[in-house]
């Protein structure tokens, strides 16, 4: 029997949707074809955000409930009308990445199992100079939505003061994204430097609810993730559907409606109707192009006052002027955190710790890790009651082609005599099991 497929006529081409009735969102009964049709219903807005940009493919071949994998290189088997461009990564490696510019290419990418779209902040016409500053407001677990909205408003005020127009959208997860079109005059390093200055200025104005601190054990409130502007980082684009049970959308907003919006109002079911009523709320973004001069003046001031460059992600080379790239819990003073039984390193890695960290779980999925945390909480309810939202450290760790989840707890608010010891992990997943390393046997 021939495999099930449906052919769509788009942009003068035939696009095959394979397994169109495959369920992608089990709780909603949403199929792959439903997902394709959603993107076509809002295609003008989608293409405004992704057109002409190289894109990393995040593929959910088993649907939203399955584990995705990241594919930076364009599939070798692809139609000749799929555009690609060579992208050079910080590691020095290169890859041909997909570029989406019309509805046919858009549908082809969704057919690969891409639920959300993750373009880079550059155009193919100039791969070294971003034309977009991206502000990612990422709340610490337990922080309420109202606080995220307050930080978004504070961010807008800073952007207004430095002459940039911010275009807000829900992240589709727990936070808010604010995009600013900029002149492609600055390198990735320069744009990131401006993002650091922005984050620090928002933190100065709203220190109780916003943070620019990179290390999770130092964060509180809402983190302004400046490192989303580092080269090779991508963010889910406008109108992207996210892999949540209710298939939430990353929905563009007006600043007037933002204070009253709710994440759950924007989904694969509601966004096409809203789009038909109000149009693309990101229309005009390409005409609102600004510069980074004022933010870079803030960066100069911070540097003159002794503030070093903020930490970069660990896979990037050490940068000139960067503060020591070491977690506060891994400073030379203190002690090495005890590893869980059977593990070679503990909650602070192999370095010394000034924070009383324990590790709870290493899991293939976040749901599995959180289930392990629930079991730990049942054993230590009194200890859990002493912990704040910032004391729960949930880390998305990079594996071979996907991420896995680590959960740690900071027991700094627990009296020393009442702190639980490091115990065997509630979930003990090894993403490297079976991998053969040069000079070593398989783990």
Give a written overview of the molecule:
With 443 residues, the protein is α+β, with helices and mostly antiparallel strands. It folds into three domains: 5-120, DNA primase, PRIM domain (Alpha-Beta Complex), CATH 3.90.920.10; 132-234 and 288-304, Alpha-Beta Plaits (2-Layer Sandwich); 328-428, no CATH class. It has nine helices and 20 strands. It has helices at residues 32-41, 43-50, 103-111, 145-161, 188-205, 271-278, 293-304, 366-379, 381-384; strands spanning 5-10, 13-18, 23-25, 30-31, 54-59, 69-71, 83-88, 94-99, 118-119, 132-139, 167-170, 176-181, 210-211, 222-224, 335-336, 352-353, 357-363, 392-398, 403-410, 427-428. Strands 5, 6, 7, 8 and 9 form a five-stranded antiparallel β-sheet that branches. Strands 11-12-10-14-13 form a five-stranded mixed β-sheet. Strand 1 and strand 2 form a beta hairpin. Helix 1 runs antiparallel to helix 3, helix 4 packs across helix 5 (188-205) and helix 5 packs across helix 7. The longest helix is centred in the middle third of the chain and has 18 residues, at 188-205. The chain starts with a strand and ends in a 15-residue tail after the last strand.
Tag the structure with descriptive keywords.
9 helices, 23% helix, DNA primase, PRIM domain, 443 residues, Alpha-Beta Plaits, alpha+beta
